[in-house]
Design a protein that fits this description.
Layout lengths: L1 H49 L1 H8 E8 L6 E2 H9 L7 E11 L5 E11 L3 E13 L5 E16 L3
Parallel strand pairs: 1-6
Antiparallel strand pairs: 1-2, 3-4, 4-5, 5-6
Length: 158
């Protein structure tokens, strides 16, 4: 009986420590998911303020991949070169993340949502997904970006 009285508090302490560690391990993942959403929102804000080209060049990882319709994957330096040649003066591209997730490693994640491409007389909408990698400095940059047309087209009638 004396052994049971000694083991019971030790077991209870072990349980409390285990629960506490599990809760602490969940916090960084929730924070990282929020960090990805904030990075994605800041990425869109920069695109709206200074243009799609500048935003994409700022947020692409050195090994980043662009998946674009009718083209093979555009990878790394080729992606940056491709983006550098874009003329984004006649449109505005913005997007809103609808969700995000984080890998167990806590250094990779994804975001997805709806983009809006505003041309002079037309607004195009579609969906997108970005895969993100946490950099050594703590910033998030995308390693894969893809979009898909399909939410509909609205012609402005002015």
């Amino acid at each position: 009986m004396k052994k049971l009285l000694f083991i019971l508090p030790a077991f209870a302490s072990f349980l409390l420590i285990s629960i506490s560690c599990k809760q602490k391990n969940n916090l960084p993942k929730k924070n990282s998911t929020l960090e990805i959403i904030k990075a994605d929102e800041a990425f869109s804000d920069l695109s709206k303020k200074e243009g799609m080209k500048k935003a994409f060049i700022e947020y692409i990882d050195n090994d980043g991949v662009l998946l674009r319709p009718g083209r093979p994957p555009i990878i790394g330096a080729n992606a940056i070169d491709f983006l550098s040649q874009v003329n984004d003066s006649s449109y505005t591209l913005t997007w809103s993340p609808a969700g995000a997730g984080i890998a167990a490693s806590d250094d990779m994640g994804y975001s997805y949502g709806i983009y809006k491409l505003e041309l002079k007389d037309t607004v195009l909408r579609g969906t997108y997904v970005s895969v993100w990698r946490k950099q050594k400095d703590g910033k998030w940059k995308f390693v894969l970006d893809s979009g898909n047309e399909g939410i509909g087209t609205k012609l402005n009638t002015q």
